[in-house]
Write a structure and sequence with these properties.
The protein has 365 residues and is α/β, with parallel strands linked by helices. The chain contains 15 helices and 12 strands. The protein has helices at 22-37, 55-69, 71-83, 85-95, 99-107, 118-129, 163-171, 194-201, 222-232, 245-251, 266-272, 283-291, 304-314, 327-336, 352-356, and strands spanning 12-17, 41-46, 112-115, 137-140, 157-160, 176-178, 209-213, 236-242, 258-261, 275-278, 295-298, 319-321. It has a 6-stranded parallel β-sheet with strand order 2-1-3-4-5-6, with helices on both faces. The protein has a 6-stranded parallel β-sheet with strand order 9-8-7-10-11-12, sandwiched between helices. Strand 7 (209-213), helix 9 and strand 8 (236-242) form a beta-alpha-beta unit.
């Protein structure tokens, strides 16, 4: 499904992310890297900075506080936008305040604009449909489930990591295609033995380890999830607190739990653990899938956490323990499952760059 048959100019790709969660930025970095490996020039933008008067930073702060302190209201908000066309239209119009910034990006004449955040996708779609942007616009869907805000009929293509989100995007009126997952992690057959890797990372060496994660901001009831994992007697919980320093301070010194802060070596951490217990189905979940580490969805955050868990379960990729009573069985089955490399990759492979520019000759530096 080619969008561009040949270069329009110098081979420039603009990527618009959103720093509301690290997964959108991580996807943007991976996309930029894929294009740059082929000789393209890339620029990456944050939709937060395209809102006027600092509104984007206020929205980001409010989003994080909402997820930390009132996650149920976030789920209610997403459901309201999903089931009310009027509310969805109002939200799309409100996001149009980012249009001037997006038009400035398009004015430089890129070959392609890629969005990894729904706020940017909505406004780019409106501008594309109105004829104000004349270059192809693509959305990369970072999740396994697709909220209507992700999809705009005038976006040229919605790229999905699995047929389930691709079909969800089509059902909402968008064109879609499945591409290989972006998340790349080191293989489990390490040069470094697992015991040595665990010692280097400061992790327990001799017992099964469960990485308990809630994304880059340590969102959700991770302390309770860790206690539940420990209570099964099946694994030692390693809580990835990430940027949630309060959670790390709360867990520090607690018997039977290891608390980690922000890590730049997450592929090493994933290679050192036996299972991942996650609550959002975001980019960390994609990295675990790519590394072949078994996963369990548990104590999922309302909204996208629950819909992602349902889609991952439907795809047969990650089992969902909906209650504490189900956790021992689901966790035990995950621990007994042999690791699988790239379980989400389809036969034959569909590289993102090849899908979008199949006839493009890479620029030689």
């Amino acid at each position: 499904m080619a969008l561009v048959k040949g270069p329009r100019g110098a081979g420039l790709v603009d990527i618009v992310s959103g720093s509301f969660g690290a997964g959108h930025d991580a996807a943007a970095r991976e996309i930029a890297g894929r294009f740059e490996e082929r000789g393209y020039l890339t620029r990456t933008w944050d939709v937060v900075d395209l809102f006027p008067l600092g509104v984007g930073r206020l929205l980001r702060a409010a989003y994080l506080q909402q997820l930390r302190h009132a996650p149920g209201t976030w789920g209610s908000l997403l459901r309201g936008l999903q089931h009310s066309d009027r509310s969805a239209r109002l939200a799309s119009r409100a996001l149009a305040v980012t249009a001037p910034g997006l038009l400035r990006i398009a004015a430089d004449g890129p070959d392609l604009i890629v969005s990894t955040h729904p706020f940017a996708s909505q406004t780019l779609g409106r501008l594309r449909g109105a004829g104000r942007i004349d270059v192809p616009v693509v959305t990369y869907l970072t999740d396994m489930s697709v909220h209507p805000l992700w999809v705009h009929r005038s976006v040229d293509l919605h790229l999905a990591l699995h047929p389930i989100p691709a079909e969800q995007a089509r059902s909402l009126g968008g064109r879609s295609a499945v591409v290989d997952p972006l998340a790349g992690c080191r293989p489990l057959h390490l040069v470094e033995p697992v015991a040595a890797l665990r010692r280097r990372l400061g992790l327990p060496v001799s017992e099964p380890l469960a990485l308990v994660t809630g994304g880059a901001y340590g969102i959700g009831a991770l302390d309770r999830a860790a206690a539940d994992v420990s209570g099964t007697g099946l694994a030692h919980p390693v809580v990835l607190c990430a940027r949630n320093t309060a959670l790390r301070d709360h867990l520090r010194g607690r018997p039977g739990v290891t608390a980690l802060g922000w890590r730049d070596d997450l592929p090493d951490v994933l290679a050192a653990v036996d299972v991942v217990v996650q609550n959002a189905g975001g980019f960390t979940s994609q990295q675990a899938l790519a590394a072949g580490v078994p996963q369990v969805s548990y104590r999922c955050i309302p909204g996208h956490g629950e819909t992602n868990a349902a889609a991952l379960e439907q795809a047969g990729l990650v089992a969902w323990a909906r209650t504490a009573d189900e956790l021992p069985r689901v966790l035990g089955e995950a621990l007994a499952r042999p690791p699988a490399r790239d379980p989400v990759r389809g036969p034959g492979g569909h590289d993102l760059v090849d899908v979008l520019f199949p006839q493009r000759v890479p620029v030689v530096a």
